[in-house]
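Shift notes (night). Ran Ribosomal RNA small subunit methyltransferase E while the centrifuge was going.
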Amino acid sequence: MTAPVFLVESVPGTGETVLDGPEGRHAVSVRRLRAGESVVLTDGHGSGAVGVVRAAEGKDRLVVEVTGTQTEPEPAPRITVVQALPKGDRGELAVETMTETGVDAVVPWAASRCITQWKGERAAKSLAKWRNTAREAGKQARRLRFPEVADLMSTKQVAALLAEADFAAVLHEDRDAGSAPLAAAELPSSGRIVLVVGPEGGVSPEELAAFEEAGAKAYRLGWSVLRTSTAGTAATALLLGRTGRWS
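Came back to this:
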């Protein structure tokens, strides 16, 4: 198996270092790592240190000998998924699976047909859950560069984001609406790809018009209709394969 990944504020240089706090507790008390096992320490921004465990002390201190460094380059093209707010914990499920697949950024979107609404204290708690999910899934997927989870955006803000993209798409299952297959879309080899995933009730005609004006066309994945919590993962996988990032 590949070495487990732990998050640190800054990547240490070669030599001995100590992993403590919540990450150290997870390494010692949950993963039960012992001397001689390999670990990776990352800042989540593309840099990592490869090391070997020298000792586990107490319940939350792991002594690591750093032997080298790793880097995860900036992705090209960069893939952002604008995710309409799903019901219940399906938002965290969407973030988790998209992170494991390889998405680079997730934007929560308050679509007009969303049943779930983020307001006040709930908004802060829900956003924190999404960001924590991305962080934990990033470690589980052995990534050195974790996806960014942006603040909640309105339709107007999403339209502005789409207008700046090198390729912008809205997932739309209705062929009568003129959606083309995403598998046949002409994609850039660099720059930014932004993909919009609507809520269970679909993207409204007004939202679709606003996004089209911003330069985003409607695309479909296949013959089956995916739930909002899984569509972003399927589309991300398709784009990663077609752009060569999964080569």
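The two ends are 21 Å apart (CA to CA). The first strand starts at residue 5 and ends at 7.
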